[in-house]
Amino acid sequence: MAFILVSSTLGSSDVPFIVTHKKASLTRLKSGDKRVSVSIDICNQGPTTAYDVSLTDDSWSQDVFNVVSGNTSTSWERLDVGGLLSHAFELESKMEGMFYGAPAVITFHIPTTAALQEAYSTPILPSDILAVRPPEKKFEWAKRLLAKYGSQISVISIVYLVASPSKSGAGKGSKKKS
User: Fold this and answer.
1) For residue 167, is it within any domain?
2) Is residue 116 a part of any domain in this protein?
3) 53/107 Cα distance (integer angstroms)
4) From residue 152, how far is each of 85, 92, 119, 147, 149 by CA, in Å?
5) Quick one: pLDDT at residue 27?
6) Number of structural domains, the chain?
7) What is the pLDDT, as a whole number, of residue 145?
8) Which top-level group of life is the source organism from (predicted)?
């Protein structure tokens, strides 16, 4: 019931409804450096245009990250109804460990009021994307199977090769008569 009440209140208001999604992905370079690519999408799902739209993402501490490309904040003149704005930047991590990214802050004006409006992006949930990971153990399961059943696999393979009919001599015995 409360959801319906809130939905109908939001639906009948004459203000932009800003939906913002923030995501980050990690790239490990051959040099051992770790780069974090951040992208933020801002969408206006409301019935009116948002003006003087600003994005600020201060969750990237300079003690932990260096900005490699782009900026952690930007602004646009407007965001029309149904419009989408996107922003991206890349960071380099200085240290490893757990990381939590707070929501980015979006501010904007609407024509009917002088007050600055605020919206927030989705956060980046606590993650160990920057944690030290042990080297991947590729094919570990195959090594265990081979160690346990290796001799049996060899016997089955040899029996199959000896017992299977030869395909090379199958076509020689039949000649077409004209």
Assistant:
1) no
2) yes
3) 6
4) 61, 50, 64, 10, 5
5) 82
6) 1
7) 61
8) Eukaryota
Residue 113 belongs to what domain range?
Answer: 18-127
> Measuring CA to CA, which residue among 83, 84, 60 is closest to residue 70?
60
- For residue 100, what is the domain's CATH number? 2.60.40.10
What is the per-residue pLDDT across 35-78, written as a single tens digit (0 to 9) for each? 889 999 999 999 999 999 999 999 898 888 899 999 999 999 99
For 90: left if phi > 0, alpha if psi spans -120 to 50, otherwise beta; the answer is beta
The strand ranges marked E within the chain are 18-28, 34-44, 50-56, 65-69, 73-79, 84-93, 97-101, 105-110, 113-120, 124-130
At residue 94, the pLDDT reads 82
Token pair, residue 120, equals: 């927030």
The model's pTM: 0.65
Mark the ranges of the chain whose per-residue pLDDT is less than 50.
Answer: 1-11
- Amino acid symbol at 142: A
Residue 46 is given by DSSP the state: S
* Interacting residues of 92 by C-beta distance below 8 A, sequence separation 6+: 33, 34, 35, 36, 65, 66, 68
